[in-house]
Amino acid sequence: MIRLNFLVKSENIISEIPILKIRPNKSQPRRQFSETELNQLSQSITENGILQPLTVRKVSSNEYELIAGERRLRASVLAGLKKVPCVVVKCSEKESAIYALLENIQRCDLDFFEEARGISRLIRRYGLTQEQAAQKLGKTQSTIANKLRLLRLTSEEQEWIEQSGLSERHARALLKLDEEALRWEALSRIIADNLNVQQSEQLIELMNNSHPQKHEKPRGTSKAVIKDIRIFINTINKAIDAMRLAGIEAQSDKTDSQDFIEYTIRIPKQSAQKKNSA
Question: pLDDT grade, residue 4 (50/70/90)?
Answer without folding.
Answer: very low
